[in-house]
């Protein structure tokens, strides 16, 4: 539970930014481009460096890496509260992004060291719920916190929360053995070899492809949901923040529900296809300009909840098709890198589409990753039923 809690706190560092950006921009004089970098720096770091993290985990141990993650999150948030221009804020977000990446990969590896395979698959199915829950909490709380305290005290608060999560994790994980490394510092090729080898396993390769495409369409829909609600439905800023938070929360609920199905013996990969079939029509409804706001939100909730099944299914695949903590770490790294690449690509593609052809054209573009998710879901469904290693 300490590992899951630390991951929720890590996700809070992502969720605190979107609705605080107007206040930050006014304080520091950020341009629109600079504000977008505040949002995307964490994804950029993970998209570029996730493959190297398993090697660090092998060298220093998952426990130390998880504690380093909480330290980076705490220091980054506290430093951000004292920044005086865009550049210093960027540096603090780089530190927070490093902490988020380390937690996303070291957490599952730490769980793999202490849990049997059955419990590990279930916890891996639940693991993706931490991110939307942490984001939803901060999306809902940030408008009030910024209004009452300002954004800088809120940054201090999230930094202290990360420090507290690290302290709890340190106590809860005492007694775990330190890593044993037979050889010296590995070279760069060794750092990349194991994740690349894991991608040679066909089911894990499809898990990574599904993760990339799912995250692109997921953030392409929910990331721009505030714009849909604000510009098209005329909702107030507070209403937009609250409704967007409920959509992210629905994603967490969907992930937890998928984990319950796996607890009852249903393979996570068998949940992917039904979820993908739900997401496809829902994204069409969200972007239909003729749909009233209640129907738009109902479709967004259904889309997000079904997406939770996708996230749970692909992450549990990292445990299903791995036989050791090292393989788990490499599989999680490949999936994490794919997720962040998708999150980098999705929103800009949607934004360009909307600018050029309007909201109604967006579903046609998002049907490309949706089709890949559907194809991958069918492949994994067959692999699971055939008992493919």
- Helix-strand topology string: HHHHHHHHHHHHHHHHH
The CATH topology annotation reads as Growth Hormone, Chain: A
At the fourth level of CATH, the homologous superfamily is MFS general substrate transporter like domains
Quickly count the helices.
Answer: 17
- Report the strand count: 0
What is the helix content?
over 70%
Rg over alpha carbons: 20 Å
Q: Which architecture would the CATH scheme give at its second level? A: Up-down Bundle
Which structural class matches the secondary elements?
A: mainly alpha
Written account of the structure:
The protein is mainly alpha-helical and 389 residues long. The protein has a single domain (2-174, 190-386), classed as Growth Hormone, Chain: A, CATH 1.20.1250. It is built from 17 helices and no strands. The protein has helices spanning 2-15, 21-28, 32-49, 53-60, 62-81, 86-114, 117-126, 130-149, 151-172, 188-199, 202-222, 225-232, 237-263, 272-286, 293-320, 325-357, 362-386. Helix 7 (117-126) packs antiparallel against helix 15 (293-320), helix 11 (202-222) runs antiparallel to helix 17 and helix 12 packs antiparallel against helix 13. The protein is globular and about 50 Å long.
